[in-house]
Design goal:
Helices cover 75% and strands 1% of the residues. The protein is an all-alpha fold and 405 residues long. The protein has two domains: 209 residues, Growth Hormone, Chain: A, CATH 1.20.1250; 189 residues, Growth Hormone, Chain: A (Up-down Bundle), CATH 1.20.1250.20. Strands 1-2 form a two-stranded antiparallel sheet. Helix 1 packs antiparallel against helix 9, helix 8 runs antiparallel to helix 9 and helix 11 crosses helix 16. It is globular and about 65 Å long. The two termini are 21 Å apart.
Amino acid sequence: MQSPDIRCSCLPAATQSSVPVVWFAAMVAVAVLPLYASQTLLVSLEASLHLGSLATLITGLTMLGYAVGLVTLVPLTDRLPNRPLIGATLLAQVICLLAAALAPVASTFLVAAFALGVTASVVQMLVPAAASLAPAASRGAVVGNVMGGLMLGIMLSRPIAAFVGGMLGWRAFYAGDAVVLAGVALVVMRRLPDVRPTGTLSYRALLASMAQLVAREPVLRRRALYQGLLMAGFNLFWSSVAIVLTRAPLHLDSNAVAAFALAGSGGVIAAPIAGRAADLGRARAAAFVAHGLALAAIAIAAAGMHQGIPHVVTIGMLAVAALLIDGGVVGDQSIGRRAINLLAQESRGRVNGLYTGLFFVGSAVGATLAGPVLARFDWPGVCAATFAFFAAATVLHLFDTSHRS
């Protein structure tokens, strides 16, 4: 099977020190905030916009929009000049944030929420853009740092939204995110690489070529599978633990749950560490360490809820488990992101979109299972199911004899 006729011309790779990694990381962190923020704003959104039973659609529409953006917008990085494409998408996201902040009625806000998800896919354009600025020898570290910003934005979105929404209202959160996003974008846009694809493939053929990429790239398939299983466990854990913390016997309030989520975000430091290990030729070992952290975390989480353990110890053990799970999943994702960014440059945008879109299937499965598993089997069932997902990823990786992934 032949590769699509897409080539690109770009500026020479920069040294790692010249790549504005901090700004790229900040950019993706701010851009990804709206994806999960609505989960801690639902009560105030429902009261203000009279959404009623439609309130639960907000996060779903945002995530659906994100998936649509991954499939329809991100592949354009392999067809259109990247700098204006990314700039236009960032501008559209700022407009969507302002539309959400000013929405007078529920229907307007729901449309804005979907559009926010679509434009948030810009983060998957920025990751390969940062990678193209770095030489191959340090690409894993650069991608790991930018991925750290992405995961930090995801992990901080709920507590930040809860804090700002509680202090100033939900409209202030969306308006504030628009202002910060615009400011950081002005800095990053000046340093974006001038990647200009020169192929003649039509947009329809470009989308069709994504299926060909999945069939042709075993590294993409394997990495998406490993990360999909890890993300299933990740979302199963996080979709359940907030409920467990607020009910008997712990009875934590929303502020305490926000603090718990904030503590778990410390696992983001695993992204650059894993990326650097992969740069040194230790990707396989680093992946097993990441999987081991996740497996150990579930054992700690299960043990922490045994009867007779003081509540403060239980909360501490769950916090440690959350930190280790985040670190393991983020670390493996960083290694996988580096691996797919070493594939053909002409398909880098589509490969990144496919990688994220495929493992988001795992995210959806885990989040969907959380409620039924918790209701029927309680916390031990959640831990067992999460462990099963993590163990499956580990076993599959164990029997993977490829050194490229």
